[in-house]
Every structure is written in C-alpha cells, then in structure tokens.
C-alpha cells in the first residue's frame, strides 16, 4: 500500500513540475515543500533503514554538495535572506526528489513512471505547438506573469509550460530517455506512436535554440543507443555527421536552430569570454565560498567594470561559471564531485548489470 502511495505521489509531483511554471511554483512554495516532505516521510516509513540509507557512500557526495551550498548561504556577501530563499526553494526540493527517486523507483514501477513522464511530455509539447500556431501562450497571456515571455515572444521561441525556452529544452531532455525506454520495450502500433512522440520531443529540444541543450540531448542519445546496440550507435553517428555537414551550407540566421548548433563550433564568443573574465575576478576576491547564492547579478557591475548592462544580461550564461562565482571553490568542486560520483556509479553498474530494465534504472541518479 505504501509503495503504491509513494508512486502515485511521485507522479503527482512530476505533473506539478511539468505543468506549473517556476513563477507558479514560487507562489505555491510552501504547499510544494509540504507535499515533498510528506512523500519523504512515507518513503522513510517504507524503508526501515532509511537513516542508514541517507549516509550511504553513494549519497555522501550529494550531502557534501548540499553542505557546500549551505556555506554560500551562511557567508553570503550582501543578502543572506536572498541566498537562503534560493537555497530553500531550489535545493531542498531537489534533494528530496533525488532521495525519493533513488530509494523508491525500481523495475517494478519503472514502466508506470516512464509512461506517465511520456504522457506529460507529449502534453507539454502539444501546449507549445498551440503556442507556435496561435503566436500566444495561454498561460502567460492570461494566468501567470513571466519576465521572459513578452521580451522573447517575437523570436520564434517556445515556452509551453516552462519559464524559459532553455528550461523547456532541458525538460524534454529529461523526458527523452523514458521515451527511448518505452520504444525499446513496446512493439507494433505502440512503437510507431512512440517514434512519433520521440520526434515531437526532439522537435521541442530543437525549439530551445540552446547549444547546451543540444549537446545534452546528443550525449543522452549516444549513451542509450550504445547501451542498447552498437549498430544503432553507428547509424546514429552517421546520420549526425551527415546532418552537421549539411549545416555548413545553410545560412545561420539569428534565433534559428542552425545558428544555435553552429554556435557550438564557433565558441568562444566575446560575450562568453567577458563573463569568464568577470567570474575569474569574482573568484580571486572570494575564492572559498563565493558571493552567495543569487548574488552574481548584485555584484556584476563591480566585477564586469562597465555599468548600465541590462539586468537580464548580468549572468555568466553558464551553470559552472555561475556555480564558481556564487559558491566558490567549496561549492563548485563539491558539485563536480557529486556529478562525477553519479557518472562513476552509472558506468560501474552498467558494466556489471545484465538485466535491461535495471540498466534503464541508471537514468535515475
């Protein structure tokens, strides 16, 4: 009974994340936090040795990362309240979801969860498709404010249910492995429908116009194809090489898929280099704990050296530089260590696991 309740609760949380933008989640921060806490408590009851599970070696790197970010709150340079609010609203829910997913998702309920994620992903794309057709997003036109929406509406971007087009692309990347999982598992008409859904998911990723999202989608696809079949991997690589070759003969207009993909090949940009140097100056002054969470924009003018930069551009536009600037060497390297621990564990289990469904559980950290 408890296991079924946890799965239902987890699916409800996934729906909550899928269909409510970040601004809405911020408005309902307390209900979200309470719901996640209840889910964690039920998971603790279900797993009698949960405390021992919390301090397993696999989770120690996660707690180290948690501690590194906590230091950046305690030693925030200007507004500890701002740093604390970001810590509570973003990191604590993420940690709870990580622990519950890692503890509760197994091959007995993976099919149910994967199916739910794929249904949610298809619905999110459909909402985005209606947005592209009508030129308006019904959520941000009538219900919820979004500072990015009206500024970027004329640039062919798709927002759907997410706060930003790049966030939408990241959402589809999370959905993509589960689409692949069902594709390898189903047959007949369902396989054809899943191929269509995967095409929609990839189209949603293309509309993110983000080089980072494109590279992540490429890595996920290569990892899964290699895990399933080397022949599939070779076919995928051949198609990729042909696709990239064709791109060189297509003009790269701004705010297009071609422009975003070619951007990978034309790095470094002067914009990105300027943010790299800005972050380096921040790091030299605050090497251990950084400026504090949500403080990069506050101190941007001081370290960039030029005033009058619009508020929306006062970011490094790079997660790792942001992490280094706001959390210092403690937060940055604890984050890198956590990511490397996930990859090490995934590849270790991939090498020793023979069961295909257990291999797909590697998609869950």
Description:
By secondary structure, this protein is an all-alpha fold. Helix content is 73%, strand content 0%. The chain has helices at residues 2-19, 22-27, 29-46, 50-54, 57-74, 80-104, 110-134, 138-142, 149-152, 165-185, 189-206, 211-228, 230-247, 257-265, 270-285, 300-304, 319-352, 356-360. The longest helix is centred in the last third of the chain and has 34 residues, at 319-352. The two termini are 25 Å apart.
Query: What best-fitting shape do the alpha-carbon axes yield?
Result: globular
Total beta strand runs? 0
String of helices and strands: HHHHHHHHHHHHHHHHHH
Tally of contiguous helical segments: 18
Helix content: over 70%
Beta fraction:
under 5%
Task: Give a quick rundown of the structure.
The protein has helices at 2-19, 22-27, 29-46, 50-54, 57-74, 80-104, 110-134, 138-142, 149-152, 165-185, 189-206, 211-228, 230-247, 257-265, 270-285, 300-304, 319-352, 356-360. The protein has 365 residues and is mainly α.
How is the topology of this model organized?
Layout: H1 2-19, H2 22-27, H3 29-46, H4 50-54, H5 57-74, H6 80-104, H7 110-134, H8 138-142, H9 149-152, H10 165-185, H11 189-206, H12 211-228, H13 230-247, H14 257-265, H15 270-285, H16 300-304, H17 319-352, H18 356-360
Helix pairs in contact: 1-3, 1-6, 1-7, 3-6, 5-6, 5-17, 7-10, 7-11, 10-11, 10-12, 12-13, 15-17
């Amino acid at each position: 009974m408890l296991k079924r309740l946890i799965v239902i609760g987890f699916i409800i949380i996934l729906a909550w994340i899928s269909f409510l933008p970040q601004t809405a989640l911020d408005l309902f921060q307390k209900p979200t936090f309470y719901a996640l806490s209840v889910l964690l408590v039920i998971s603790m009851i279900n797993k009698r040795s949960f405390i021992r599970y919390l301090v397993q070696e696999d989770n120690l790197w996660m707690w180290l990362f948690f501690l590194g970010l906590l230091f950046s709150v305690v030693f925030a340079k200007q507004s500890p309240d701002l740093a604390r609010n970001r810590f509570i609203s973003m990191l604590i829910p993420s940690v709870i979801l990580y622990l519950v997913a890692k503890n509760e998702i197994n091959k007995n309920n993976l099919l149910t969860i994967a199916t739910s994620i794929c249904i949610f992903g298809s619905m999110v794309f459909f909402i985005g498709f209606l947005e592209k057709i009508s030129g308006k997003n019904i959520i941000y036109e009538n219900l919820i404010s979004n500072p990015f929406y009206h500024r970027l509406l004329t640039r062919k971007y798709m927002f759907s249910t997410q706060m930003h087009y790049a966030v939408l692309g990241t959402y589809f990347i999370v959905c993509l492995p589960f689409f692949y999982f069902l594709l390898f598992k189903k047959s007949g008409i369902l396989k054809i429908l899943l191929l269509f859904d995967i095409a929609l998911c990839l189209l949603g990723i293309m509309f993110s116009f983000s080089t980072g999202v494109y590279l992540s989608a490429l890595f996920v696809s290569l990892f899964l194809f290699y895990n399933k079949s080397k022949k599939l991997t070779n076919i995928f690589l051949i198609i990729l090489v042909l696709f990239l070759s064709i791109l060189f003969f297509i003009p790269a207009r701004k705010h297009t898929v071609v422009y975003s993909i070619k951007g990978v090949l034309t790095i470094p940009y002067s914009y990105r280099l300027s943010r790299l140097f800005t972050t380096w100056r921040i790091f030299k002054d605050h090497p251990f704990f950084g400026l504090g969470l949500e403080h990069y924009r506050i101190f941007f003018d001081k370290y960039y050296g030029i005033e009058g930069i619009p508020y929306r551009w006062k970011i490094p536009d790079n997660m790792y530089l942001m992490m280094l600037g706001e959390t210092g060497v403690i937060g940055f390297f604890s984050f890198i260590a956590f990511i490397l621990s996930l990859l090490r564990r995934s590849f270790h289990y991939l090498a020793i696991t023979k069961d295909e469904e257990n291999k797909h559980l590697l998609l869950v950290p």
